[in-house]
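QA checklist item 7 of 12: single-chain prediction sanity check.
[x] sequence parsed
[x] length recorded as 162
[x] structure emitted
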Amino acid sequence: MHLIAKLHPKISNGARREEDKFNFNKDSGMYCCPQGYQALRKAKRGAKNINNNQTMTYYFDIERCKCCPINESCYKTGAKSKSYSVSILSDLHGQQKKFQTSDYFKEKTKKHYKIEAKNSELKQRHGYGIASSLGLIGMYIQAAIIIFMVNTKRIITLINKK
């Protein structure tokens, strides 16, 4: 069974702003600032083996940042360090991002809006969003009654169209 839902754009694409002009240098494996200064070191941050994304943080020389001509845009006066973080997708997010490109996922998402519209109708027009009785059995009964009522209503509408 697969989750037919798109990842949040911040997870799949990252949360980069337009003014971020940091470039990755493949030869050194480090990021360079807009002025071309390379990061001094990098460190992986975040918990391992949990389905949360870790970040790779790149640290820059603060002395260079202090005398940089564009320091107003990326350096905060009085800061003790300058860093740039890039999110690393967890295995679960990586699998979902890969699954999103499959034909099966694209076919299913085309039909997704119909299901969501029906769920919205059940919750907003017929009270399925709030439990009217206590316990799991009460919810089963409420679900059965509401779904039966919506289906009966649909049958009546289809009969009247003929």
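[x] summary fact logged: The first helix runs from residue 9 to 12.
[ ] second reviewer sign-off
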